[in-house]
Amino acid sequence: MFESETRSTSRRLRHALRRRGAACLAVSTALMLGGTLLVEPAAQAASDAGPKEGIQGRDISVNQGNDYPWSEVASAGVEFGQAQATDGDWASPTFDKQYKAIGKAGLYRGAYHFARPSHSSGSEQARFFMDHGGKWVNDGTTLPGMVDLEPTPSAKTADEQCYHQTPAQMRAWIQDFTVEYFFPTPGGTSAWATRPPSSTARS
């Protein structure tokens, strides 16, 4: 069952994600769409997944391939996994297998999108994300999609870290993505119209 999570958990999530980006990204924030769960990098060893405060999860990308030890992670107390589905206008070739592996391990699962605000609009990237695995499904095991907004490894200046966007432009991009994901144009999911994001956290 899914029911409302506490606001304090949501604040902890936003704080943790803000620390990953540069100053302007911290203002704009990396956001989970409708979720209030704590995510830790999948690069962390499964042996480090012991009991911690809050609900624990792992996120993986194409860099981890298809052999991530989800069963070991689940045994260590992790309860959900997020696999990268898209990056700007690129779709991950490993997403399908990674996503299935998370479910096979008995974990809640979801997809995430690596945002590229300088490449295209938020609504365009939201539609691409939903078309390539990012849609939410009301099946009791699928989590809402997540946006990963952070500096790219190649960024050398503050302007590059912020995708050449001002804080106001970044906030507008996030809003554009969010509105399209929650209330998409015809052809997207309409689930959010009747199921508010605030009611989708795990009990």
UniProtKB/TrEMBL annotation:
Entry annotated with the keyword Hydrolase: yes
Signal peptide: 1-45
SUPFAM superfamilies: (Trans)glycosidases (SSF51445)
Keyword check for Disulfide bond: no
GO molecular function: lysozyme activity
Family: Belongs to the glycosyl hydrolase 25 family.
Name by which UniProt lists this protein: Lysozyme
